[in-house]
Amino acid sequence: MGRRAWQLAAAAAAILAVLGAAAVRPAGAAPQVPCYFIFGDSLVDNGNNNLMVSMARANYPPYGIDFAGGPSGRFSNGLTTVDVLAKLLGFDDYIPPFAGASSQQLLTGVNFASAAAGIREETGQQLGGRISFSGQVRNYQSAVQELVSILGDEGSAAAHLSRCIFTVGMGSNDYLNNYFMPAFYSTGSRYTPEQYADALAADYARLLQAMYVYGARKVALMGVGQVGCSPNELAQRSPSGVACVEEIDSAVRIFNRRL
Question: Where is the signal peptide (predicted)?
Answer without folding.
Answer: 1-29
